[in-house]
Amino acid sequence: IVGEPDPAIRRILADEASRRGATPVRIVAEEGSAEAIEVLATGTRFRWRRGGTSQALLTGIPGRHQANNAIVALTMLDALPEDLRVSASDAADALATVTLPGRFSRSGDWIFDVAHNPQGSSVTAETLREIGARVEATRYFDDHHAYTLSDMTSVLAQARRECLQIVTTSK
């Protein structure tokens, strides 16, 4: 099952899987797509269009990218041998209850996310915006960045100048 969204990378993965004898090689993006994606504070609602059908689905994790993650998982379930397969309705019901500690986990007014690189942090900020949070500014540093005094004073100066609350991940 190839769930990569980037077409060039997807082709490389599918070709390599075929070269190594995987059969069948299923490419999720060629079988269907997630449409009408709506990011909610409690999950992600979308329609999965494939093979002339459309199914309304809900994940338990907020984020636009979670719709693609969900259809990859559902395609993997569909690829199981018949005696191990889960019904589409059971899979949809279970999908709505899925949570993953550290992935947009909520505790009262706090949201915890283990984004560990600039791209993941950017997705977290975008998801916050989509659920209605005000994200005034963002600053990303690479994972395990060796922070300098200049890094810290720059962030503090911006926060002070713009009256912003600093929110960070712990490392």
Task: Report on this structure.
The structure is a single chain. The protein is of the alpha+beta class. Helix content is 39%, strand content 18%. It has helices spanning 7-19, 28-31, 65-78, 88-95, 118-130, 149-162, and strands at 32-40, 43-50, 53-59, 105-107, 110-112. The strands form 2 sheets. The protein has a 3-stranded antiparallel sheet. It has a two-stranded antiparallel sheet with strand order 4-5.
Quick rundown:
With 171 residues, this protein is of the alpha+beta class. The chain is built from six helices and five strands; from the N terminus they run H-H-E-E-E-H-H-E-E-H-H.
Key words describing this protein structure:
two-stranded antiparallel sheet; 5 strands; 18% strand; 171 residues; 3-stranded antiparallel sheet; alpha+beta
Please trace the helix and strand order, writing H or E for each element. HHEEEHHEEHH
Biggest sheet strand line-up: 1-2-3
Overall morphology: globular
The rounded Rg comes to: 20 Å
Fraction in helix: 25-40%
Average predicted local confidence, pLDDT:
90
Can you count the beta strands?
Answer: 5
Low-confidence stretches: none
Give the percentage of residues in beta strands. 15-25%
Largest sheet: 3 strands, antiparallel
Query: Strand pairing plus helix content: what structural class?
Result: alpha+beta
Number of helices: 6
Q: State the separation between the terminal residues, measured CA to CA.
A: 34 Å
